[in-house]
Every structure is written in C-alpha cells, then in structure tokens.
C-alpha cells in the first residue's frame, strides 16, 4: 500500500520540480525519507514533484506496509516507557551541537574573513523571501534542531522502532526539528542563568513578552564600498549606531546573514525578521545599495522592537562589538555558536505567568491566528502586486500621458509663435509654460513611487517574511498540544502516570505562552507599522498632489499678463 | 498630351477613392470637367483617385492639346477685349441666383416644416468637419458662386473659348465659385443700401472689421424634445435668448443648418464657424444633446463675436423672429434666400480704408498666415489626438489603477478585521476608509475629462473648422492678386487700358482688406478663446487636484484616532 500524507498547509510551487499542495490534500509519498527537507510524491491531481516535508503529516492509520513492524497506532496502544526515558536524558548534546553549528554558520572561523557573502554566485543564492523560508525548512541552520537528543539522522530508523510512544515519526517535521517535541517530552536540559530568563507576563490581551526595560534603537547609515586584497575584493560596509551605546560599528551583509542564522537556530517560536535577499550581480549599484539599506533598516527596527530578540546576547554582540577588535569579535562569535540555550533548551529559559493557560482557548486562538495569517498573506500579496503595478504605471504610462499633453501644448505654442503680433506674445509664452509644467508633472508622477509606494512594498516584504515564518511556529505549538491530548488519553488508559502528564502540560503551557506572546507582539508591531506606513503614504500623496497643484497655480498666473 | 495640374495645397485623402496630393505636386487629370467639385487624376506617385478641384490649378502653359485652340498663354498674348466686356456686364444675375438659391437651401419653402434635418439618414450626413469642408467646396451652397455671370455649367466650354483673357479656366476653383473673380473683373453689380455697408478700418495691426457698435451675446438653453404628427416625429428645440432683444426664440438644428448655408453663400472671405456635425442615430441621448448644445454655444459665441456676421440680416432674422409667427418667419426666410448681396456682390458692400494697401505687403502677410494656419492645424490635430487619448486613459486606465489600489487597501483592512483586538479596530477602519478614498479618487479621474479636456476638444473642433475654411479664403485673395499681376503685364504690353487696371487694383484692394480684416479677427478671437480656455482648463485641473488632496487629508485624519 502506498505511503500517504496529508498537507498541513498550502504550498505553492515556485521552482521547477516542486508541486503545489493544498491544505488537507492527501498526497502519495515515494519514500518517508526526505531529501534535504523535501518529500517527493504525487498530489491529488497526479502531479509529481517535491514539497516541503514540514508541510505534511504522514498518515499512519492505514497500517502502511512500508513501515517497519511498528505502526503509529500500534505504538499508541503499547507505549514503551524505557525508550521514552532514554530520550529524556540525552547524552553529550553539546558535542552534537558543535558539529551542526559549523554547518549552520556555513563555514568555520577560518573562513570568516572570506567573502562567503559578497563573492557568492547566483547558484548558492537563497533566492526570494519565500525561497529563504524553504531553505530554512530544509537544511542549513535548522538541521540543528534534532540534535538535542543523541539520535542522529543515521539511526533514525532504529530510534523509531523503540521510541514511538507519542513521538512524531516524521523526523523532519518542524515540531521535531525546532526542538519543540524534545522539550515537551522533557528531553531538554541545561542551566539557565538569571540573565537568560525570558518572562511571559499576562497582559490585557493575554500572554505577552515582558517589555524590554532598556529599549533602544539602531541607525544604519552611509553604506560605503570597502576593498581588500589590494582592491581584488570589494564589499559594502554599513555603519550601525545603537542608541544605548552610541558607538558606531561597521557590519557587512555577511554579518547580518550570520546573525540571522544564529537567531533562527535559537528561537523556535519567535518570528525572526528576514534579512533583505542576497543579490549576486550589480551589488554596488546605487539603487541596490539604497534598497538593501532600507531593507536592513526595517529589519533592524523589528529586531530592536522585539523584547526577546533585542536583548539576546548574539544580537548585542553584533551591535556592540568593536569592528576593529578582531579577537573580541571572534570570541563572541564562537560563544554564540556554542550557545546551549537554543531550540529545545530555549524553552527552558521561559518563565510563564503563574496561572496556566486553558489549552482549548489557546487552540482556538492559534486557529484564529492561522486563519488571520492566511488572509493577511493573501491580501499582502494582492496589495504588493497592485502597488507594484501602480508604481510601474506611474513611472511609465502616467508620466508618458502627462508629458504627451505637455509636448502638445508646447507644439501649439510654437505654432502660435508664428503669429508675431504683440498681443499674442503673452499667451504664447503662457501656453509654452503650461507645456513645460505638464512635462514636469509627468516627472513628478515618475518620481513619486520611490517616495510612497516603495516604502509600502518594503513593509509588505518584511511582513510577508513574518507570515512565512508562522506556519512553523504554529506547527510547533500544535505539536505540543497534540502531545498533551495524547498523554491525557494515555493516562486515562493507565499507560502513563499523572506526574509525566503534568510535566507535559507544564511544558506545553510554556510553548503556548511563548507562541501567544509572539503572536501578540506580531499584532502590536503590525498595527504600529501599518498605521505609521499608511500615514506616511498619505502624507506623501498629499504633498505630491499639492506639488502638482502648486505647479498649476504658478502656470495659471502666467495667463494673468497674457 | 496629358492634362496637367499643380496642387495649390496639401490634401489628405480621408475616404476611399480619394488620393492625397502635396502642395506644388504635379498631377495628371483625366478630364478638366470636375465631378461635383472633384477632379479625377493621378498624383506624382502614380496613385489614381479623386482630389478637390479647388485645391489644384490646371497647367495651361504647355499648350495642352486637350484644350480647344485657345490656351492660356496664347490668350495672354492676345487678349480679347470684347469677350472681356461681355463678362463685365452680366445679364439677369438675379434670376440665375434665384434658381441656385433653392438648390442651396436644400429644399423649397414647402419643405420647410419637413424633418429634412431630423429625419435625415446617415447617407446624407455632412460627415466630419473635414468632410463638411469638402462638401462646401464641391456642391451645395457654393454652386451658387459661378452664377453672377450668365455662364452656366452647360456653356462653360464655349465661354472659355471666348473669354480667357485673364479668366481662370477652372470653373470650379474657389476663386471663381466664390464670386471673387467676377468681382475683380468688375462683373458684380448691385445696389448697396447704407445699412448694408461694411467698413474695414485701419487698426493698430492693419485692416480690421469695424467693431459692432451694438455688441450682444446669445444664450442657448434647455434643449427640449418636441413632437409633432401625434408623436410620429420628434425633434430637439433649443431656447435662444439674444441679449439685445431679451426675447426667447426656439430653434431647431435644421434652422441652424439653413442659416449656416446662407452665411457660407453670402460671405466669400469670412470664415463662418462650422455648426456641430449632424448625427443620425442616438439624437435624443443626453450626452449627444449636451454635446451638440455645447457645440452650438461655441458657434453662437463666434457668430456674435464677429463684427460682420453678428450684424447680418439673415442672422438677425434667425435670432429675433418669433418662432410662433410662421408668416414673419417665412418672409424673412424668403428675403434671405433672395439676398442679392451675396458672393461677388458681397464685396460691393465693403468700404475699405482710404489708403490702398501695398499688395506686396499683403501677399507677404497672406503667405505668412497660410504658413501659420498649416502649423496651427497640425498642432491642433496633435493636441486633439493627445487630449482625446488622455481623456480616454483617465476614464479607463487611471480610474482602474486608483480603484485597484483602493480595493487592495480594503481587502487588507478586511484581513486585519479578523484580528478582533480593540487596539486594531481604529487602524482597520482607517485603512478601509483609505480604500474607499482611492476608489473615489478613481472616480474623480474618470469624471474629470468632461470638465476640462472636453471643452478643449470643443474649442479645437471649432478652430479646426475655421482652419478648414481658410484655404478657400486665401485662394480667393491670391486669385485677386494674380489678376492684378496679369493686368499689370497686360497694360505694360499695351493690351489693357489704365482705367481697367485701376479698377482691378481697387477691387483687389477691397478683397485684400476684407481678407486681412478677417485674418485679424481670427487672431483676436483665437488669442481670446485660447487664453480663456487654457485658464479654464488650469482652474479645473487645480480644483481637481485640490479635491484629491482634500479627500486624502480627510483620510489621513482617520489615522489620528487609530
């Protein structure tokens, strides 16, 4: 019998070889082994291709013959306590981590000064924001997330046969990879320093991240072109000035990229804002530099606004370490890469509010948010397309139309100038001026999108990145809830003791608090950002139409003496 | 040997069967007999087809064998005084006129109440402004213009053989048809009443029509649909109220049409403004009625602004005769149709300034004006096309773009409304309002051309009509000047006596004065009209952009409470 899976989310194919799947669509898999985070299979339309492994759940209840003797349902009825215990006490997680860190950072310390960003070719580009998202799903930083247990990819099959009490068989689901499962099952362990404690408090609208008591911002100025190896290599350096230190540091895109990888690794249920996409060609063109700088400013704004991200060590190191102190930089870099409090262990650092949440209410909130993100993603996509097209029309069509009108007026005035009589001179000049005014207005239209529509597109790009992060975050939370339900069932059937269940509940509560706090934060910055951006847009539009009006008023005056 | 002709003006073919000709192009004619004002022939590219007879002059100096024994050059050297005398004393011109008047008015008195306008079919439409111009060239009213002599179409051939001293052999040239030639040759005669006298005075810029001492205007209001024959026939009636009588009269389009025909017939070197074109279908649609009314208002404005047209009897009859007094109307109508002071005789009514003009200077002015009209015609054509396209773009494309933006904002606000938290309600409403505002702005764009671009197109249409009149007017004046040159040559060669030459000079001076006065008037109303229209356009544009700004300012305020 074929191995079947159910799509958990919509996935739209963006590259050759991929197939689109719809939420709840039943898919046929060729193998339960993923290829770098992708499954190969056939969708319900019979289209064959790849889709992200984390977007689907494998269906086991038809006792698929492709599984080893133990199917999921069998294991439910026969939980194996010892193997469960094995998992809750992982051995030497650090060593395992160390290995995968190096993969995650895409190079060793020795490579640090190489241009692994700036000299990258198109082939290893992460592509668009969407592409980045898939990349993060599959390999790279997130491969780390299975490694809080001693289980490695090589012995996954063996592990499955002995430890499937309530363990997800899809080793590549985000719930597993993020460390969410390991944490819920009590497998995470580590020493949490006081300074690392992250508090979730109960606010007016539910769980919230405790506010950053030392809020700060950070400017990004003057991207400058730097060269090294006697001008053989060149790169762009950005000047960062955090308000809490007032010390300027220079950072390159590759530093942002490295930081981003650390953050994604560390925070399973926090939506790390995407950094602007890489670009291989034309990196030093004014437009690109200006566009990337704007993207980095947006990114920085979201980083410093986030109560957890803003305060985390690796970000502070990035913001404050003197660029010229190579030694200090490397030390901080190594420390970040060895950080134990990542993935599953991150949840250990969270202090939830005293009263546990009602899981039913949590589930309903999460479901509501899932619907919200889909709607927002659709509308952001539509708005982005519209705004993009509107900008294009203003730069081309609108400009052309106004300039054609301007030219026609000028041609008329030139014809009129053939009449040399004194009483027509004033009119001829006024019409000529009108022609020039409309040509100028055409230019105004072409220049305007840069001022008002581009910032909207920048905002949408950032939020589209967040929206692409949420399926994974939701997946982690839902995975935890599922574990709670399973454990309740087990305890009713006498297959699990109450203490174990309470531990699972408690840990699920932590994940839920963190997720809801993150969602709350998302809504707050969303309202703040969209309000500010809409106001900015309208102000720019008003200034634009006033500028046109002013030009026309000036033009009209020319007729007074005509 | 082929009959050849030289093009006097550019002619652009507009209909199948016509060929375009360029000024000075040498053409081959199939016959010197025109077909309703058109010659059939071949242009220099070898294209065969029709072109207006009045746009060309037949070339006689190669002693074309197609001519009867007397070629133009032969006649130059052998002027035949008696035959010349024959022409200078036409017999019974009135009778001949009477006959052609009836043709010109397109119907007898008995037909007056028929719906020869309103029930006309597409087939007898005058077509576009350009088409109207050719129509006027060919047949209809202007056929009259040969009839101040006893010569009729039937004996043209015979006349030519006996009277070609300095007579244009093209009986269908405007110079001939307008009566210009007959007048220059002293063939016009009639009794000029004091009230009919038209003075040309020497103004600051040269000859000018004496100003109308009793200037007036006339409003055109409330076009209403009227029916007769128990509703079987319906027509639109316009309410005209001249300021000098303050008595409202009702006139139908056919009355305007009849008046127009009278005016064209009467005034050889006055540019009678074209009435709005006929339209067979959809005559009672709001848009059409409104458009025609606007066209008639423009027309009326040009009529009342013209020192000669405004005062002429037929126009005054049209403006003042009580619509219900059938008898008075018919009387005035018959009187206008029997008017002797038309065509050649019109020139008799003109009193030139005391000092005669310098013909060389006149020729240079006329040439300059000819160049001017061409340039203005080209630029008006271009502006009209641009403005028309600009209006279309605003009604379709611009509207669509702004409305798409509006819709996308609304869709975003709907997505945001899924987040039920209190702090986002204000923003959601504000974004929703922004969406509606942009949809409204889309409508503003669609509505605007009616307010600012349509009036420009109306103005251009009127002026394009005038520009289409000028080749004929220039032709008449140039014809007169040619006669002067010929006569000077003749007198040098002793073939003509000085008194005859002086008479020709005097009459050419009258035509020149009238032509230059008309050109002066044209420039003056042009400067007045274009100034007013450009000011109106800019005022409307300013109001438009202010309206948008106002809407956006209102929208921006919604965010204050958000």
From TrEMBL, chains A, B:
The entry's keywords: Cell cycle, Cell division, Cytoplasmic vesicle, Endocytosis, Membrane, Mitosis, Protein transport, SH3 domain, Transport
Residue stretches of biased makeup (Low complexity): 88-106
Record localization: Cytoplasmic vesicle membrane
Keyword ATP-binding among record annotations: no
Example of a GO MF term: phosphatidylinositol binding
Amino acid composition bias (Acidic residues), ranges on this chain: 108-118
Membrane topology of this protein: Peripheral membrane protein
One protein family per Pfam: BAR_3_WASP_bdg
CDD domains according to UniProt: PX_SNX18
Record-annotated SH3 domain positions: 1-61
Binding site for a 1,2-diacyl-sn-glycero-3-phospho-(1D-myo-inositol-4,5-bisphosphate): 252, 254, 292
Compositionally skewed regions (Polar residues) per UniProt: 73-86, 140-163
Domain PX residues, every copy: 216-326
Superkingdom to which the source organism belongs: Eukaryota
Region feature (Disordered): 73-163
Protein name: Sorting nexin
Species assigned in the record: Sander lucioperca
Gene: snx18a
């Amino acid at each position: 019998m074929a191995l079947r899976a159910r799509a958990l989310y919509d996935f739209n194919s963006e590259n050759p070889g991929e197939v689109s799947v719809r939420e709840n669509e039943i898919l046929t898999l060729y193998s339960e082994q993923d290829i770098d985070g992708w499954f190969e299979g056939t969708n319900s339309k019979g289209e064959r291709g790849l889709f992200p492994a984390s977007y689907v759940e494998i269906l086991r209840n038809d006792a698929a013959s492709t599984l080893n003797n133990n199917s999921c349902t069998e294991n439910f009825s026969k939980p194996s306590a010892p193997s469960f215990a094995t998992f809750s006490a992982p051995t030497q997680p650090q060593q395992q981590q160390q290995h995968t860190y190096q993969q995650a950072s895409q190079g060793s310390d020795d490579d640090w000064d190489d241009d692994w960003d700036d000299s990258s070719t198109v082939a290893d580009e992460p592509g668009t924001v969407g592409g980045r998202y898939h990349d993060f799903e599959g390999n790279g930083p997130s491969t780390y997330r299975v490694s809080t247990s001693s289980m490695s990819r090589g012995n996954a099959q063996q592990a499955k046969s002995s430890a499937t009490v309530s363990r997800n068989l899809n080793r590549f689901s985000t719930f597993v990879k993020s460390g969410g499962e390991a944490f819920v099952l009590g497998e995470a362990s580590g020493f949490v320093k006081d300074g690392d404690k992250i508090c979730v408090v109960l606010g007016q609208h539910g769980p919230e991240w405790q506010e950053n008591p030392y809020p700060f911002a950070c400017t990004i100025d003057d991207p400058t072109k730097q060269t090294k190896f006697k001008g053989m290599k060149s790169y762009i350096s950005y000047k960062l000035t955090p308000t809490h230190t007032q010390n300027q540091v220079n950072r390159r895109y590759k530093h942002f990229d490295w930081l981003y990888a650390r953050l994604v690794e560390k925070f399973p249920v926090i939506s790390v804002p995407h950094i602007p996409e890489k670009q291989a060609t034309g990196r030093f063109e004014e437009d690109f530099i200006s566009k990337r700088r704007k993207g980095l400013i947006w990114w920085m704004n979201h980083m410093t606004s986030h109560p957890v991200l803003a305060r985390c060590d690796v970000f502070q190191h990035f913001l404050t370490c003197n660029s010229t102190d190579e030694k200090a930089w490397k030390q901080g870099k190594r420390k970040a890469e060895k950080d134990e409090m990542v993935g599953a262990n991150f949840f250990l650092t969270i202090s939830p509010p005293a009263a546990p949440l009602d899981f039913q209410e949590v589930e309903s909130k999460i479901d509501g948010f899932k619907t919200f993100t889909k709607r927002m993603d659709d509308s952001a996509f539509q708005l982005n397309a519209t705004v993009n097209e509107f900008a294009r029309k203003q730069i081309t069509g609108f400009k052309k139309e106004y300039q054609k009108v301007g030219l026609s007026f000028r041609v008329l005035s030139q014809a009129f100038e053939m009449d040399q009589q004194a009483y027509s001179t004033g009119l001829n000049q006024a019409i000529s001026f009108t022609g020039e005014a409309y040509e100028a207005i055409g230019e105004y239209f072409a220049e305007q999108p840069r001022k008002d529509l581009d910032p909207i597109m920048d905002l949408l790009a950032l939020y589209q990145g967040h929206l692409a992060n949420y399926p994974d975050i939701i997946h982690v939370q839902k995975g935890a809830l599922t574990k709670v339900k399973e454990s309740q069932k087990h305890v009713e059937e006498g297959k699990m003791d109450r203490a174990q269940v309470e531990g699972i509940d408690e840990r699920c509560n932590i994940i839920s608090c963190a997720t809801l706090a993150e969602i709350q934060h998302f809504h707050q910055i969303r309202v703040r950002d969209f309000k500010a951006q809409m106001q900015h847009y309208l102000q720019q539009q008003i200034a634009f139409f006033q500028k046109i009006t002013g030009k026309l008023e000036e033009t009209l005056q020319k007729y007074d003496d005509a």
